[in-house]
Amino acid sequence: MLRRFFATLGFLSRLAPARVIAEEDMRRAMFHLPLCGLVIGVAVCAPALAGFFAGRPLVQAWTVVLLSVYFTRGLHLDGLSDVMDGAAQHTSPERFWTIVKDSRCGTFGVGAVVLALLGQTALFAEVLGHARAWMLPWVFVFGRACGVCFGGVNRAYSRPGLGGLFLSGADAKAVCWALLLALGPALWLNPLAALYAVLTVLVLLTPLYRLVRAVAGVNGDFLGASIIMGELAAAAGLVLTLAP
Predict the structure, then answer these.
(1) Domain limits at 78?
(2) Which of 5, 16, 23, 89 gives 10 a disulfide partner, CB atoms 3.0 to 4.6 angstroms apart?
(3) Which residues contact residue 82 at a Cβ distance below 8 angstroms, ignoring those fewer than 6 apart?
């Protein structure tokens, strides 16, 4: 179990040594996503939690976003970019998957990444401005839990390849574990934020859910996009509970 956790963390981030993951371990990786999110969240929020740039929430927020991109190697943003490029330009499922597999980044992909990063920075700054830095690691847990749940709902549409192996692990056990880790602490500490986050992510992921059916498939890029949308939804949920 611990070996698979660190293998997953190394695959998703720079916080553990990268290594070749066996096929069976890849199938079990989804179960470890939320806890990997907690480790990543604590790591990227560490400077803010330690008080660096105190009183400058925008700088702190930018630092959190910068470290998130660095530690995750931009993996999930790359997925968001690919999906948005394909969604904006596809005229058929075949055309969509051709665009998604293209290593080049188009206008819509760049725009989606820029908006996501700006959104995270603005939302994180609001949370940090209210001295709620300790809440931010939950955002990264919630985002990866959304990835597990999205994968579970769409697992039947998974395409062959690395993403398909990863998504095959989004079974009922992994989904229940993800929901427990994402919502359990939040319902205890800030239930209203959890409610707002769930409602927001349902709005954000519904078009993605429909796109899966329109293009008759889902891969790791969709998973990355759902994680970014989950992070944005969780941060928005926190902000909506803060006094103006």
Answers:
(1) 2-240
(2) 16
(3) 99, 100, 109, 221
